[in-house]
Amino acid sequence: MPRNAVAYDDDFFAWTQEQARLLRAGELTDVDVENLAEEIESVGRSDRREIRNRLTVLLSHLLKWQFQPKRRGASWSVTILEQRLQINSIIEDSPSLRPFFAEVLASSYKNARDVAARETKMQLGAFPTECPYAPEQILKEDFLPGN
Length: 147
Known about the structure:
By secondary structure, the chain is mainly alpha-helical. The protein contains 5 helices and no strands.
């Protein structure tokens, strides 16, 4: 790295801007390769984490929608829609993450079931042990269980 370059640990934003400038200029010998590779990998981990978190929220709201029909409201339907839009957007930007959605469905459902039970004050056993929704239903904009 050149002597006047901003260090990764000193100012992350300035470092990112400098690395982008170096790459665009073709000054590859001055690029902080190790930290840049780590940051690129972290972007992928971030997208995976976001899918997992949003899927848990989505599934917990689908369960609440299905098992507490008298409490349905606009906020639940908006939350369901928002999670779907965001998950679909991530997958649209990175289609290779579609299989990851299927990989984390079971664990996300387990977490969503726990969340739904706590939020509704219903017994955990009131909810199915396995996810009752097909992956296509989960991401389909107009699907709401029990409608």
